[in-house]
Automatic annotation (TrEMBL):
It is found in: Cytoplasm. Residues 137-247 form the Chorismate mutase domain. It comes from the Eukaryota. NCBIfam families: CM_pl-yst (TIGR01802). Keywords: Amino-acid biosynthesis, Aromatic amino acid biosynthesis, Cytoplasm, Isomerase. The keyword Protein transport does not apply. Pathway: Metabolic intermediate biosynthesis; prephenate biosynthesis; prephenate from chorismate: step 1/1. This is Chorismate mutase. It comes from Acacia crassicarpa.
Amino acid sequence: MATADSNTDLRNGYTIMSVREALIRQEDTIIFSLIERAKFPINSPTYDKSYASSFDSLVEFIVKNTESIQAKAGRYKNPEENPFFPEYLPSSAAPNYPFPQILHPEAALININKSIWKMYLEELLPKFVAPGDDGNYAQTAACDLSLLQAISRRIHYGKFVAEVKFRESPQEYEPLIRAQDREGLMNLLTFERVEEMVKKRVEKKASVFGQEVGPVHDENQGKYKVDPSVVSLLYEKWVIPLTKLVQVEYLLRRLG
Ligand SMILES: C=C(O[C@@H]1C=C(C(=O)O)C=C[C@H]1O)C(=O)O
């Protein structure tokens, strides 16, 4: 039988099933964004602070300014969105939309985009883009931003996952939160079987979405726009662990 709390979750559109479905749909966005970024080579001047004197680096310039425009248009009114440079944002000039507010206010503010930014530039990019320079730095930075936003949304979705898990079994979570027991919380919110399915599915999606398609025969069979094993590695090494880190950080603040 549904409890009052799970009815509330249903009304607001967040249940463990619905958050897992949202994570599955977000895989598509991440994989398409990886494919789009892989269209360009590394294009290192995009990230070089000495490339142009008028801004820090081209990628920072594009990200800060695009976020600023999107903030004004209301993007960050949605609690699922988290900016990379919150310190530079103007307030929204758009009318309010009644987004469901299910997150605990103390915990809703978690933002680990600085770590995501560093991981993306230092570890992930070199693993899936070709070496080289074709001069398309602004287009490259725009692709970086779309991909960074998709990865960030997925990782910060951990707040919603944590909230629905907490509401489903507060009696299990509360003692661990009171004891501020990170390890205990991490064990309780981990479902290894789900993680294995996620890793297998993203590898398969990357091989379906990113395969080269010939007009008649599949002469290019086995050639992919982004190596499917890199997508699985991205999830295993960063996306899943960082989503779980957000969940733990959220829960630690859940009773505050
Ligand atoms: C997101 C969840 O929490 C954890 C993190 C997962 C992930 O990031 O894909 C998967 C399973 C859990 O270990 C979940 O339970 O669905």
